[in-house]
TrEMBL record, chain A:
GO terms for biological process: protein retention in ER lumen; protein transport; vesicle-mediated transport. It comes from Coniophora puteana (strain RWD-64-598) (Brown rot fungus). This is ER lumen protein-retaining receptor. One of its GO terms (cellular component) is endoplasmic reticulum membrane. Keywords: Endoplasmic reticulum, ER-Golgi transport, Membrane, Protein transport, Receptor, Transmembrane, Transmembrane helix, Transport. Belongs to the ERD2 family. Its main location: endoplasmic reticulum.
Length: 212, 10
């Protein structure tokens, strides 16, 4: 463990708390893509299936449980509790275009052709692009509640912070994980436009609005 | 040559 990874994980944790807080205080999941949230459940379940056969640490164990449980809870909130506040007509990204390529890529580019290893690889590729339905929705509506932008910023910071972690691990542990690194760079790259508006507008106290 | 990554990250 190093500081970058710890901060990345904490940022990830924070993003989830912000999202749950947003849904509960506004009693609405307006502006949140159900598809993106469903993809995160898929990502966590596929990757953390190793809870059954791989022990890393107590930290790692509880974080995995938390990510699976909280993502399922968010789906529940969106699907049942606050269902009327979700507008499927603006959440129309075709997730097949993300899941399909992630399946194919994980079958081709993996470390070992084994079921759980391919699931891990699939989860890494899918996570890289899982935010797209959410960003697509933001693009369509052209604006977002401030709290939603804080959620997205914390979520984007999480993978961005993993990048110095990988550089650090390369030098200190001689560990390199090309699949995670390439996917992580793509994932972070997808946030660049968002970060630009977040830093130049939201953090200056303005509303998140995309130019018409 | 390096061993394959051991998936100890989240």
């Amino acid at each position: 463990m190093n500081l970058f990874r710890l901060l990345g994980d904490l940022s990830h944790l924070a993003s989830i708390f912000i999202l749950i807080h947003k849904i509960q205080t506004t009693r609405s999941c307006r502006g949140i893509s159900f598809q993106t949230q469903a993809l995160y459940v898929t990502v966590f379940v596929a990757r953390y299936i190793d809870l059954f056969f791989r022990w890393i640490s107590l930290y790692n164990f509880f974080m995995k449980i938390f990510f699976i449980a909280s993502s399922v809870y968010i789906l529940y909130l969106m699907k049942y509790r606050y269902r009327p506040t979700h507008d499927p007509s603006i959440d129309t990204f075709k997730v097949e275009y993300l899941v399909g390529p992630a399946v194919v890529l994980s079958l081709i580019f993996n470390y070992k052709f084994e079921f759980t290893e391919i699931l891990w690889t699939f989860s890494i590729y899918l996570e890289a692009v899982a935010i797209l339905p959410q960003l697509f929705m933001l693009q369509r509506t052209g604006e977002a509640e401030t709290i939603t932008t804080h959620y997205l910023a914390a979520l984007g910071a999480y993978r961005a912070l993993y990048i110095p972690n990988w550089i650090y691990r390369y030098f200190t542990e001689d560990v390199v994980d090309p699949i995670a690194i390439v996917a992580g760079l793509v994932q972070t790259g997808l946030y660049l436009d968002f970060f630009y508006v977040y830093f130049t507008k939201v953090l200056q106290g303005q509303k998140f609005e995309l130019p018409a | 040559h390096r061993p394959p990554p051991k998936h100890d990250e989240l």
